[in-house]
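User: Predict the full complex structure for these chains.
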Amino acid sequence: MGTKLFDSELKVMGVLWREGDATAKHIAEVLKEEVGWNKNTTYTLIKRCMKKGAIERSEPNFMCHALILKEEVQEAETDELINKVYDGAADKLFASLLGRKKIPKEQIERLKQMVKELD
Amino acid sequence: MVGMRLWQMSFYGGALILVIALIRRGLQERIPREAFLALWAVAVLRLLVPFAMCSGFNVYAWAEDCLLEDGGQEEILEGILSGLGSRSSGEFFGGEGNRGEGIGVLFSEEEGGTAAGVPQESKGAGLEYGFLKMREFLAVAGKGIYWIGFMASALFYLVTYVKCWKEFRFSLPVRDTFVLEWEKGLSSKRKVSVRQSEAVAAPVTYGIFHPVILLPKERVWEDTRQLEFALEHEAEHIRHFDAAKKLLLVMAACIHWFNPLVWRMVALANKDMELACDGRVIRRYGLHSKSAYAYALIHMEEKRCNWMAFGNRFSDNRLEERIVAIVNMKKQTAGAIMAAVVMVTGVATVFAIAPDREEGAAAQMDGQGMEPASDEALLQEWYIGEGAEEGSSEIQYVQTDGEGKEADAAASEDSGLWENATKQLMYNISVNEDFADYEKFGLSYDLEQGWLLYQNEKVGYFKDKIRPNTYRRFHTEEGTVGIVVARDPAGRITGLYTGTVQEVMEKFAGRSVTVGILEEGENDGQVTVSILEE
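Assistant: Here is the predicted structure of the two-chain assembly.
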């Protein structure tokens, strides 16, 4: 079983795989340019990767070293993340095109039928 | 302008929500969805702004009047708060501090409410002290419960917000050429960025000043047409500042957490925002595109439900409601738009006006028009609704028809007429059969000057609550003495509270306070007074 990482974490790993060991500061600079994250966002992600055992750091300068290979990585299930974010009242705070609940197939078929009758 | 208390705001806001919900149910697709959004905005304002315009007639006063027709509500609602005061200095002890307007008055509700049903005959000092303590305790407990509820709701939303924001910031830019093109073509004063996040299952928009559209990582659309619909839908949210509106709705819900109608409003208004965005997009692409749009929604939902591994399938009426709304969408006729405008203005005017409890009964109109200061037989008494700004031209004159029933009111815009009216009122008071009761306490009427006098000084402010909801009151710049008539619970005059016009007005003007002067002190001629707060 490889380590499961989210896309955001993969972005951080990507820098290390591409450029070899790098300081946290350097990673932050690269990712600011590339995806627009601020420094703290990148640092948080580096910490997450360390927690998952994907990055090892050493002093000085918070030097980061990738512990896993690109091939070993698995995509993390996003369901958990989505549920974590949406279990509260996110739809009351943010506009969302669709709800969070899963809808039964029969209901979806019925709705499709309703639209079809329109034509 | 009149300051309102929280419970008033909540009650009137709730009534408004109920009406909007009913209109919404009745009209649905027949008028533009924006009309409901405008109505919700009125309701949110009513719930969040502790001030309101004043008027003699409004629907709340009317409703209250119908509900409490027997006029006995004063006795029920009136709490007794007694204190000692000295007549000469005009100082009151034990009364509640000055009630400012605005936030400071938010909690008077518990204080007034908890004293309900206190029998007014209980004048025993010990008993009254007991009630006082109980009221104090309940007031504190009520405030405590309110704040706990408020903090809990606010914290709940804050935690959700922070949690989402924390995940959302890890979003990645979208490299899709179609999206990039679309982003470029967007005309908005704020820079809108489209990003991609694993934390969302369907497109989400957040941010007020730097709006961000988050697309789910998984492709939930079949073609760029569907993606375009999704992006346009989100862009409509951004153009109409829906993020800010949602924040205001949540604020209203937290402040009025104890009011289930407010929560209902949040749900309905959120729904209406979605429906309005659907409508705007479809209208922009032409009504013929409504089936494509509806299908895109259903398809995205289907895709989303398929790749989301966890979670039970629930019947979600929200999507169904939207599809039904889209299917039933019709071309907006000028008539429908007109009807919407008329309806919104109508509801807003009727409900946005400040309710004024005491004015309530007095201001009810029964259709008998009246000429001010003319027919003496008709003009037995003038009653002025309490609570309107003193001396302002908005003050209403209300006249009785002899049976204690209030007749139509005619507002005076003209200050000259106002002066005459005050004189007329003084005359009317003097010829009234109960004037002798005032005379016992030193009030007299000077025929030559046409003025009410107290110890040979001209009366400048006069207020007497002759019965619940009915006041005899005037204020004029010319007089020097301010008088508030004290009555015991049975309605008998027990004394006059006097002072300079300014002193007395500071205490009593515009407030729902009556004074009951009870007995002469034994030694120094001081008078024991109790303030009856409503």
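The mean pLDDT of chain B is 71.
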